[in-house]
Amino acid sequence: MARFRAFIELALACGAALGCAASWSAVRSTVAVAPVASGQPVTTSVVYDPQLLLLTLLLATAAGILAVVGVARLRRAA
Question: How far lies 34's CA from each of 20, 30, 63, 66, in Å?
Answer without folding.
Answer: 32, 13, 40, 45
